[in-house]
Every structure is written in structure tokens, then in C-alpha cells.
Design goal:
Layout (H helix, E strand, L loop, with lengths): L2 E10 L2 E11 L3 E6 L6 H9 L6 E5 L5 E4 L11 H6 L7 H11 L15 H14 L4 E5 L7 H14 L4 E5 L5 H4 L3 E4 L9
Parallel strand pairs: 3-7, 3-8, 5-6, 6-7
Antiparallel strand pairs: 1-2, 1-4
Helix pairs in contact: 3-4
Length: 197
């Protein structure tokens, strides 16, 4: 079942953001939300997460489990890198799966480190590994490649593209190249957007 936003409007107390916005997300593949700051990209993600509710309009087709990577890394400072990823996994193989994803993002050699020992780009990759490992049927990513150089960002995009073969991925980006790396559909938002492109 497709995820459908129909005539969705939303305002913060001091700022209207979306008005009559409609879009149907595909069942698989990456959809990139683009546009200037303040146009509602992160708000759309928050609506899909259920952290915000539309003032009017409907959102249908959301799965019961959603995996999220926020703009902030949101890593537990007292937990190791491996623990930060394995905590989203409820299976006997959680540690093994966490290690596999950390290897995939190039961090297999810092499993026992804590976040404060890592660079900003490394913390970003831990957060990405955690989101990719999580068993949600929808993956939401808010600027996942921030702080990564171009070759590394392209490598991470390949991982996201692989995940998108089996589930929908919705990603906020300011990067002009990223939609092409992801073979993504693009939804360009403008302030008070009335339709998806």
C-alpha cells in the first residue's frame, strides 16, 4: 500500500509551512525532498513519523514500523558504537548485524569506541548504520550525508540505494548531486507548497 499525503496543511505557531500538499510515495525506491530552508522538508518527515499532525488533510498507508535518521546524530554518549547500532535490533543476532552494518559504512575498526571519540563524519555514519539496520518498513533520512566528503557520500548513497530496492526511502537533501546518486524521484518543495513535482 502506497503512502499518500492528500491536501495536507501544517503550520507552526509563528509560521505556516504546508498548504494543500499532496503526494503519493512509491512502494520502493528513494524519494528526495529538496528546496530552500524553511520550505517544509523536515516537516514532511515529522508528519510521516507521527511527531506532527496535519492541521487538515490526510496521511494514509503508513507502515507500523518506521526507521529514522534525524538531522542530529542522536547517539547515546555512554554507549559504544556497536551498542548504538545494536540497540535498535531485537534479535539474537543483534550484535552480529550491527557489526555488519558498521563494516558497511567503514567503521568496523571503532566498534568499542564511544561517540565522543569520533569525528563528526564518523558519528554521522554510525547514525546512518543504525537507521539502515533498523527493521522498519519505511526509512526516513534527514540530510544523511552531512559532513561526508564526496567519495564517501557516494559510497553511503549506494547502501541507501540497496535498501530502497525493498522498501520506500524518503530523504531530505540540499545536495544537488545526491538524487542522481540514489536514482531518486525528486519532490521540490517551496514555501507553502501546494503540490509535489
Amino acid at each position: 500500500m502506497s503512502i499518500v499525503l492528500k491536501n495536507v496543511s501544517f503550520s507552526y505557531p509563528d509560521k505556516p509551512v504546508l498548504r494543500g500538499f499532496s503526494y503519493e510515495f512509491p512502494d520502493t525506491g528513494v524519494t528526495c525532498l529538496t528546496g530552500p530552508s524553511g520550505c517544509g522538508k523536515t516537516t514532511v518527515l515529522r508528519l510521516l513519523m507521527g511527531l506532527e499532525r496535519p492541521a487538515s488533510g490526510t496521511i494514509t498507508g503508513l507502515p507500523p514500523r518506521i526507521s529514522v535518521m534525524f538531522q542530529e546524530d542522536r547517539l547515546l554518549p555512554w554507549a559504544t558504537v556497536e551498542e548504538n547500532v545494536s540497540l535498535v535490533l531485537d534479535s539474537p543476532d543483534a550484535e552480529k548485524t550491527a557489526r555488519q552494518w558498521l563494516d558497511a559504512v567503514g567503521l568496523g575498526d571503532v566498534l568499542a569506541d564511544r561517540p565522543d571519540a569520533l569525528s563528526g563524519g564518523m558519528r554521522r555514519r554510525v547514525a546512518l548504520a543504525r537507521a539502515l539496520a533498523a527493521p522498519g518498513e519505511l526509512l526516513l533520512l534527514d540530510e544523511p550525508f552531512t559532513g561526508l566528503d564526496r567519495p564517501l557520500a557516494q559510497d553511503m548513497a549506494a547502501l541507501v540505494r540497496g535498501i530502497a530496492e525493498t522498501k520506500p526511502v524518503v530523504m531530505v537533501t540540499h545536495g544537488a548531486e545526491e538524487p542522481a546518486w540514489l536514482d531518486a524521484r525528486t519532490v521540490e518543495l517551496t514555501p507553502l507548497s501546494v503540490a509535489g513535482n
